[in-house]
User: What shape does this take?
Amino acid sequence: MRKATSTKTTPYDVATYLNGPEEMAAYLDAWLTEAPDDVAGITRALEDIARAKGHPTSQRPPDTRVRPIP
Assistant: This one.
């Protein structure tokens, strides 16, 4: 019988690797090209870019209700 080994993992945050405007633009472009209809994914990509720039992001889900234009 083999002894169970534990695997240690660390959280991955893509924002740590977005080191400049060109990388941020390429990251967003990849989302828009690969999954243009994935609103949640694109929102996550924009939040990743905001975190990479040092801006705090909201922890609540985006408001998706339709509102009339005044």
Remarks:
- Helices lie at 21-34, 39-52.
- The chain has a mean pLDDT of 85.
